[in-house]
Design a protein that fits this description.
Keywords: Cell outer membrane, Membrane, TonB box, Transmembrane, Transmembrane beta strand, Transport. The protein is mainly beta. The chain has nine helices and 54 strands. Among the domains are: about 80 residues, Carboxypeptidase-like, regulatory domain (Immunoglobulin-like), CATH 2.60.40.1120; about 130 residues, TonB-dependent receptor, plug domain (Ferric Hydroxamate Uptake Protein, Chain A, domain 1), CATH 2.170.130.10. It is about 5% helix and about 50% strand.
Length: about 1000
């Protein structure tokens, strides 16, 4: 009874005290840019009293006038509000922009994102493309504005074409420079995608100029995963993927072919089904990290087995990487060591099997025993061959009878030393060596009609062997000096020296006329020992002298008031590849940027930066010795003949680029816009010269210029940002136009090939014209006697559609096209698009990525050759598209075969789930499973196998010939018959941390 009475007396007193302490109830709503924000901590400053907002962002707390309420939420700026007479306090939290202080690796150092005055984009592992990624370049596909990455068809053994801001040279140095953990000139083939932590792209000249002659096509800096001191951890990443043909060339079935008038050989064969498969790729990656005190390490092993959708194509690869770091001498000396080794065994298969699966007669049998024709069978390994028909081979026999193998090994190591002299001064030294060994072997049986010469009495069988050994050494030393004379002024000075040396040896041997097929391509070695004076043999070898580059460089970074940034660099570089009179070049760069928001103080704006950069880079000759006279042995081996004459004035190609950029950050919104113009001059080209002055009549000289103007836009927005639910979307858009300002070899090029189109060149190369224009006759939609009728473009009453190689089209340069050829399209897109969506809900994550290109066209080569109902080609299959006109029986290139190739594809979609693992678990720390689809669908009107742009062209190859030409960047837009077919892939993956 007493207790109850005591409670009745005390409770009112406590309420009274509480009312005195916290005299009123404060309510309100805490929001962000999208609405009510749950989970916000609301505390009375200086006390432990507090609460949290509910799911709608609402809160209620008792407080006195004069109390300060503190509102905190992860990822948002902390806000304070003083309690007044009002009982309601609403506010909106703005997000913290920690990304402005993100460290970005640049040439010979690092800086924060806000201090960069150049066009630079960093992509972290979290944003990489998911699923089956066999090459490191695929991680970036569609992720960086202005960076075009295309592997047309998706052959697992083919490196992607990488272009940054279009064409940077007409030579071979068209791919961006790769820098891996500070080692310049490294190979993406020697790093497994699983070992990469981030990739940074230096896009403009002011960023790349510090790399001199190797930075003209841009720079991709790769940072690998590193060890961490502490408990040793083991992680496993594994996946299994299934790939199938996404799209195929539309040809006729056997019955359709016969109904269309094709030659009936009695069978009904689906050739494409016989030479392709559902391909399986498996990936297994194990990594161990650990260390103690100031020492850490990481070692990984990667096993990758990748099958191509074409039978007998794919590779097995083993890669291992080791990284260790330690500090010595009272932590003044930091040592980093990296080593990696990659061994790949490839089965290249034969893309030609896909080509002939499309065009080979669908009524032909696989084996000669199933044919009524007596000349097929044993002489050709038992396979049926349509003898006497040009460019026609049994696709199954191509695969089954022949071999096309390769082995590649790469070893790289580097040691990096950083010594801190004082708090302001540090010295850095790097030594690295890369070794590459390559062997490719082909063998075509004595009974193979395809390249084996089974119908050639003078050559039975063919073996080809190519080997290459390449070695690259790098030594660099540089120092950094930081000083701050005032509170608002910071200086950082870098100066250094670089030495590079490369040499290689390669050997090519081809032999034939073998007694049997026992030794496959090893025949090329064994048989050649006895056949130097008989049979068929070809030998070629090259050994380079030491190719050296030495350089001196310096860079100054200045920051004023934490808002105005200045950058200047210069590199003085010399190369042994150049002429005696021009071995040295100078590559300067300047950049300035200002965060205008520091002074404008715009509401809800974290950053509004304007930057302007200018830089000069160069490009070296594609081969050694081009500045010197070149000779080759004559047929009697007793004398030499001159191929080209020396040019002591040969110098670098030079690229000068100006970039204007804008960066905007406001809470959840980030946007970047870059406008640029670049000028590439002094192309390195071999051309005809006066034979009276130069005995060979040929010399490598500088000549030609091109200019590119373009823009790049990147926008990223966090649409939803809740505790359990986030949704982010980002879009990148890029566009550029490249004009050939001067060139000494103008005219039409891009020969379509045989049969019947050998004098048909379809890409215009002309001064003052945009690169990549497709030219040809304009079909008027009517047919006469099996031939297309063309439009009389110039109205002179006659039709002139000469497309021979070198036809100038506008011979007098007055802007009026000669004859009746006209522009039918262009091979380079107007716009390229990447669109990313990332959703996370509790333990689930969903990533979807769309990629597209718009404004480009493609010459559909399959249609050019096999859509017309050509009588003499009656044993070829016909292409069966909506454009086909059965009245056309004479194959002739025209606008009919040029198609718009705009596309939007779901490039990648991945669904993942991360399991909740108890902290008491003895075995697992994290487990994540994922299901990924790649290239699942494409929206396009292009009738070919793949609408992606063809940025380069290697020319035509016909009737079992070999593809020997280099990639020509001036002839984009031709969809060749030897391209691999695109595939769609579904991948199941698991990541485990132990």
């Amino acid at each position: 009874m007493k207790n109850k009475l005591l409670k009745k007396l005390i409770l009112p007193f406590l309420f009274l005290v509480g009312g005195i302490m916290y005299g009123q109830t404060i309510t309100g709503v805490v929001s962000d840019a999208t609405g009510g924000l749950p989970g916000v901590s609301v505390n009375i400053k200086g006390t432990t009293t507090g609460t949290q907002t509910d799911f709608d962002g609402k809160y209620s707390i008792k407080a006195n006038q004069g109390d300060v309420l503190v509102f905190r939420s992860l990822g948002y700026k902390t806000e304070e509000r003083t309690v007044g007479t009002s009982s309601t306090i609403n506010l909106t939290l703005s997000e913290e922009s920690n990304q402005l202080d993100e460290i970005i690796v640049v040439g010979y150092g690092s800086t924060t994102k806000k201090e960069i005055t150049s066009s630079v984009t960093k992509v972290d592992e979290e944003a990489f493309n998911k699923g089956t990624v066999n090459s490191a370049s695929e991680l970036l596909q569609g992720k960086v504005s202005g960076l075009s990455i295309y592997n047309k068809g998706g052959d697992p053994n083919t490196d992607a074409v990488i272009r940054l801001r279009g064409i940077s040279t007409v030579g071979s140095n068209s791919q961006p420079l790769i820098v891996i953990d500070g080692v310049i000139g490294a190979s993406l083939n020697n790093i497994d995608p699983s070992d990469i932590a981030s990739m940074t792209v230096l896009k403009d000249g002011s960023a790349a100029a510090i790399y001199g002659s190797r930075g003209s096509s841009g720079v991709i800096i790769v940072t690998t995963k590193r060890g961490r001191a502490g408990e040793t951890q083991v992680s496993y990443n594994g996946s299994v993927a299934m790939s199938s043909i996404q799209n195929q060339v539309q040809n006729m079935t056997g019955d359709e072919f016969v109904a269309a008038g094709g030659t009936d050989l009695g069978s009904r064969t689906d050739w494409l089904d016989l030479v392709t498969r559902n391909a399986v790729t498996t990936v297994n990656n194990v990594a161990i990290t650990g260390g103690y005190d100031d020492t850490s390490f990481r070692v990984s092993a990667n096993f990758r087995n990748a099958e191509g959708i074409l039978k007998n194509s794919g590779f097995d690869q083993f890669n291992t990487r080791f990284q260790a770091s330690t500090k010595l001498l009272n932590d003044k000396l930091k040592v980093d060591f990296n080593a990696s080794y990659t061994q790949r065994e490839s089965d290249f298969g034969f893309n030609e099997a896909l080509r002939y699966a499309v065009l080979y007669n669908p009524t032909a049998p696989v084996l000669g025993a199933d044919s009524p024709y007596p000349y097929n069978g044993d002489p050709y390994g038992g396979y049926f061959e349509t003898l006497g028909l040009f460019d026609s081979f049994n696709p199954v026999s191509i695969q089954d009878q022949n071999q096309n193998y390769g082995e590649r090994s790469e070893f790289t190591y580097s040691a990096n030393f950083k010594y801190t002299v004082t708090d302001n001064i540090s010295l850095n030294a790097l030594y690295s060596q890369q070794s590459t060994n390559l062997t490719n072997g082909e063998y075509y049986k004595t009974t193979s009609l395809f390249r084996g010469g089974a119908d050639n009495p003078f050559r039975k069988g063919l073996a080809r062997l190519y080997t290459e050994d390449r070695d690259f050494k790098l030594f660099e030393v540089y120092g950094d000096y930081n000083f701050k004379p005032t509170d608002k002024l910071d200086f950082k000075l870098t100066a250094g020296y670089s030495w590079q040396q490369e040499n290689f040896f390669n050997y090519f041997l081809a032999a034939g006329d073998f007694p049997n097929d026992d030794l496959a391509y090893i025949n090329a070695l064994e048989w050649s020992q006895d056949q130097l004076n008989g049979g068929f043999i070809e030998v070629n070898s090259n050994k380079s002298p030491d190719q050296k580059i030495i350089a001196f460089f310096t860079r100054l970074n200045v920051t004023f008031d934490d808002a105005i940034y200045f950058n200047a660099s210069i590199r003085r570089e010399g190369s042994s590849k150049l002429g005696e009179n021009n071995k040295w070049g100078l590559f300067p760069a300047l950049g300035i940027g200002a965060d205008l928001n520091k002074y404008l103080q715009l509401d809800n704006v974290d950053l509004f930066k304007v930057r302007l950069g200018y830089g000069v880079t160069g490009s070296l000759p594609s081969d050694y010795g081009l500045a010197y006279s070149k000779f080759e042995p004559t047929s009697n081996l007793l004398s030499n003949q001159r191929l080209t004459d020396a040019n002591p004035d040969l110098k670098w190609e030079e690229k000068a680029e100006t970039n204007l950029g804008f960066e905007f950050t406001s809470g959840r919104l980030n946007a970047t816009l870059d406008l640029y113009t670049r000028k590439v001059s002094d192309f390195i080209l071999e051309r005809a010269v006066d034979i009276a002055v130069y005995p060979s009549g040929r010399r490598v000289e500088n000549g030609g210029d091109l200019s590119t103007n373009g823009f790049e836009l990147a926008v990223n927005y966090d649409i939803i940002k809740k505790n359990d639910l986030t949704y982010n979307s980002g879009i990148i858009l890029s566009s550029y136009k490249t004009t050939l300002d001067s060139y000494n070899l103008p005219g039409l090029r891009g020969n379509l090939g045989a049969p019947g189109q050998n004098d048909t060149n379809v890409i215009l190369v002309a001064e003052g014209q945009e690169i990549g224009q497709i030219y040809g006759a304009l079909w008027d939609g009517t047919v006469t006697n099996g031939s297309q009728n063309f439009v009389d473009v110039n109205g002179d009453g006659s039709i002139d559609v000469n497309q021979e190689f070198g036809n100038a089209v506008d011979s007098d340069g007055d802007g009026v096209i000669d004859g009746d050829l006209t522009k039918l399209g262009k091979g380079i897109p107007d716009f390229e698009l990447g669109w990313t969506h990332t959703v996370r809900y509790k333990n689930w994550d969903l990533n979807a990525f769309f990629r597209g290109a718009f404004g480009h066209s493609l010459v559909n080569n399959f249609r050019v050759f096999y859509e017309p109902r050509v009588g003499s080609q009656g044993s070829y299959n016909y292409i069966n598209t909506e454009y086909a006109d059965p009245n056309i029986t004479n194959a002739k290139f025209s606008s009919l075969y040029v198609e718009k190739a705009d596309f939007l594809k779901l490039d990648n979609i991945s669904l993942g789930y991360s399991f909740d693992i108890s902290e008491d678990s003895k075995y697992f720390k994290d487990i994540r499973v994922s299901l990924t689809g790649q290239n699942l669908f494409t929206i396009t009107n292009y009738s070919g196998a793949d609408p992606e742009p063809a940025f380069t062209d290697r020319g035509s190859v016909d009737n079992g010939g070999f593809l020997t030409a280099g990639a020509d960047p001036l002839t984009p837009g031709i969809d060749r018959r030897y391209n691999y077919f695109a595939s769609r892939t579904v991948t199941l993956g698991i990541n485990i941390n132990f």
